[in-house]
Amino acid sequence: MHCKFSVPLFFLFCNLIVAQNTNYSVVTIPENLKENANSVIRYQSIDISITSQKSYVKTTSKAITVLNPKGINNIDAKEYYGDSEKVNFIEATIYNAFGMEVKKIKRKDFKDQSVSDGFTISNERVLYLDYTPTDYPFTVVFTSETKNSNTAFIPGWSPIDDYLESVQKSEFTIHYTPDLGFKYKEYNFTGRTINKSEKEGIITFSAENLEAEKQEEYSPSPSKFWPEVKFGLEKFYLEGVEGTAKTWKEYGAWVYNALLTGTEELSDETKIKIKALVGAETDPIKKAKIVYQYMQDKTRYVSIQLGIGGWKPMLAKDIDRLGYGDCKALSNYMRVLLKTVGVEAFYTVIFGDKTKRDFKQDFVAMQGNHAILTLPYKDKNLFLECTNQTLPFGFQGDFTDDRYALKVTPDGGEIIKTDEFNEKKSSQISKGNYSIDLDGNISGKVIIKSDGIQYDNIYMLEKKSKEGIDEYYKNHFYWINNLKMNKIKFNNNNENVEFIEDLQISALAYGKSNAGMMMVPINVFNQNASIPQRYRNRKNPFEISRGYYDEDEIEVTIPEGFKLEVKPENLELKDKFGTYKMELAVLSPNKLLYKRSFLANKGYYEKEEYENYRKFREQIAKADNSKIVLTKI
Question: Which one has a higher pLDDT value, 123 or 449?
Answer without folding.
Answer: 449
